[in-house]
Specification:
The complex is a heterodimer of chains A (244) and B (233). Chain A has helices spanning 36-44, 92-97, 101-104, 114-120, 136-149, 166-183, 194-200, 218-222, 227-233, and strands at residues 2-10, 13-21, 25-29, 51-56, 59-63, 68-69, 77-80, 154-158, 187-191, 203-208, 211-216. Chain A is an alpha/beta fold. Chain B has one domain: Orthogonal Bundle (MetI-like fold), CATH 1.10.3720. Chain B is 77% helix and 0% strand. In chain B, 36% of the residues are buried. Chain B is built from ten helices and no strands. The chains are: A alpha/beta (244), B mainly alpha (233).
């Protein structure tokens, strides 16, 4: 269970959200500049909230009351950045293996080997290329492979499909859903695209101006609620309205 | 004639080493942190580049001379006189060429995308590893440019060196000093030879820098299949 309850002041905006999330894919949906990436950065430990609480299962990442702020490198959170953030001077293989050495030494058994990851993401033929030689879709797959190789307990994705063309986007949407089922870790995905939200979400949080307007739970999704309509007409009677 | 050449190379290399270590530390800090009075600090760092070398020489004399705080400390506790040794020439060259190293390194660090360092953090890397494997390699072309420029500047240092290290043949007489005093004593052939040597040395360093930078940066920026030599998994 991922628990987030944070507030963070930004220039011209205060991000103040609180939510719990257990499994599947949580989509944080909102317009550009609504504070979505700040939420991801706070969860990943790349930015500190001003106050609040973040934990995953028993592990407390951040607690302003207890003065806990676990550094990003010890959170075991995979992060796929919006612009992929692939290391341009390293090959695909070197990129993917970057997170491995330190953990390997501890003699940990891996659920899935490097080759499996490369094959699953269809990039085994690209391993000796540099990021500048990859297409958008290939970069995205490499970034995914790199994040998954360290066996994270949670995967964060910031606008993962926004830079891709239509064909690639559809293919990767399906792959993301498959990957989530195989890995069985929660994915938190940020997007401003309604299509992406519908295609991927098990659970949805609507964000506007740094605040949560609506939280749509899986059973509501299954009941076939009109999410698009909800977003526009929120607050609605069927939503968790503690902030909305 | 060979003495000033060897001494000049020795002094310039030592000065560049000092600049490299100090320059990386200061530039890295300044590129990634914001604090009150940063502009003042930055201006002070750049100052040696715009001040006349004699002003720096005078300042160093005050600082390192027998009665200066550093000079007196070294004399009292280590019985070591810094002024008029080749160490003083190293310090003078290092101070004068430091801004070149700093400027290049700072621009190079600032050019490294911060999200790459953040990505490395989420992959479990410690700060030292991130610096050595991500930041430094990506900033390297700029840092190398700084190294070469400060080397060339240190090689040509005259005014401050003369003031703090003097002109002792075989001990502190570097190429620029030897040229000046050769001309003054009418030994034009010695002066001409040294001029040719230092011009050739400076040209070679700058030429090599240009060539290396083009080659290195192309490897991963535009890299073609010929660069794919990694071992398969």
């Amino acid at each position: 269970m991922l628990r987030v309850n944070i507030s963070r002041k930004l220039p011209g905006l205060t991000v103040e959200v609180s939510f719990d999330f257990d499994r599947g894919i949580l989509v944080i949906f909102g317009p550009s500049g609504s504070g979505k990436t700040t939420i991801l950065n706070c969860i990943a430990g790349l930015r500190q909230p001003d106050e609040g609480y973040i934990s995953l299962d028993e592990k407390v990442f951040y607690s302003s009351d207890d003065h806990i702020a676990l550094p990003a490198r010890r959170r075991r959170i995979g992060y796929v950045f919006q612009d992929y953030a692939l290391f341009p001077h390293l090959t695909v293989k070197e990129n993917i293996l970057y997170g491995i050495p330190s953990r390997c030494k501890k003699g940990k058994n891996y659920r899935i080997g490097t080759l499996d990851v490369l094959e699953m993401l269809k990039i085994s033929d690209l391993q000796d290329r540099y990021p500048a030689q990859l297409s958008g879709g290939e970069k995205q797959r490499t970034a995914l492979a790199r994040a998954l190789m360290v066996e994270p307990d949670l995967l964060l994705l910031d606008e993962p499909l926004s830079a891709l063309d239509h064909g690639n986007r559809r293919a990767l949407q399906a792959e993301l859903r498959d990957l989530q089922r195989i890995w069985r870790i929660p994915f938190v995905l940020v997007t401003h695209s309604r299509k992406e939200m519908h295609a991927l979400a098990d659970e949805i949080i609507f964000i506007e101006k740094g605040r949560k307007r609506t939280h749509v739970y899986p059973d509501m999704r299954r009941a076939g609620l009109n999410l698009a309509g909800m977003a526009e007409n929120s607050p609605s009677p069927v939503v968790d309205g503690n902030v909305a | 004639m060979i003495d000033p050449v060897i001494l000049s190379l020795k002094v310039a290399l030592a000065a560049v080493f000092v600049d490299f270590v100090a320059g990386l530390a200061v530039a890295r800090t300044m590129a990634r942190t914001e604090f009150m009075g940063k502009n003042v600090v930055e201006s002070l760092i750049i100052l040696p580049m715009v001040l006349p070398p004699t002003v720096l020489g005078y300042g160093l004399l005050i600082l390192l001379g027998k009665r200066g705080p550093v000079g007196r400390f070294l004399l009292e506790y280590f019985d070591f006189q810094l002024i008029f040794t080749w160490w003083a020439a190293v310090i003078a060259s290092a101070v004068v060429s430091f801004p070149l190293m700093y400027q290049s390194a700072k621009a190079a660090f600032a050019g490294v995308d911060i999200s790459l360092e953040q990505a490395a953090r989420t992959l479990g890397a410690r700060e030292a590893r991130i610096f050595l494997t991500i930041t430094l390699p990506l900033a390297w072309p700029g840092i190398l440019a700084g190294l070469v420029l400060s080397f060339a500047r240190a090689l040509g240092e005259f005014g401050a060196t003369l003031m703090v290290a003097g002109n002792i043949p075989g001990k502190t007489q570097t190429i620029p000093l030897a040229i000046y005093f050769a001309v003054e004593t009418g030994d034009t052939s010695a002066a001409r030879n040294l001029v040719l040597v230092i011009t050739a040395l400076s040209f070679a360093t700058v030429f090599w820098l240009n060539w290396w930078c083009k080659k290195k940066v192309q490897t991963w920026k535009k890299g073609g299949p010929e660069h794919a030599q990694g071992e398969h998994l």
